[in-house]
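::Amino acid chain::
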Amino acid sequence: MALNRNRYSSIIAVRPDDLDLFGHVHSSRYMDYFLAARFDQMGRCYGMGMQEFLDNGYAWYMLKFDIAYKRGLGLGESVKVFTWLEEFNSYHVLINFEMRHPETDKVICLGISEFGLVSLASQKSIKIPDWVLERYQDDAL
C-alpha cells in the first residue's frame, strides 16, 4: 500500500484578532491556520478526526514547524490551506503545506511540519499504531 499523498484544502478566513500592529496577519497565526486546516482534513478527508485519537487515548504533538513566507494577508481576506503527507512511519509524520490566496491563487507561504503521537495516559511519545498507519494509505480511502 502506498502513502496517501493527495492534496486536501480548507479555507480559513482572516479574523481581526489575527492582525499585528501593521494590519497584516501575525506570523504565529499561520501555524493556527495550518492546524485548523489539518484538523478539518483529518476528519473530512481521511475519515479519522482528532476525537477518534482522543477516544483511543492518543494525541498528536508538533515536533517541528518550518515556514517560508511569500506574501502577507490582511483583514477581509481568506487563505486556502493545502496539506499533504510527505512521510509517515512508526514514529512520526511529515506534513507539507502550502497556503494560497483563494482568488488569485498566489502562494502566501509554504512549509513542512513534523508530528509524533503521545499516549494521554503516560504522557510519553509512543510508536504510531498500525491501524493508524493503515488509515493513511491510498487503499484505505
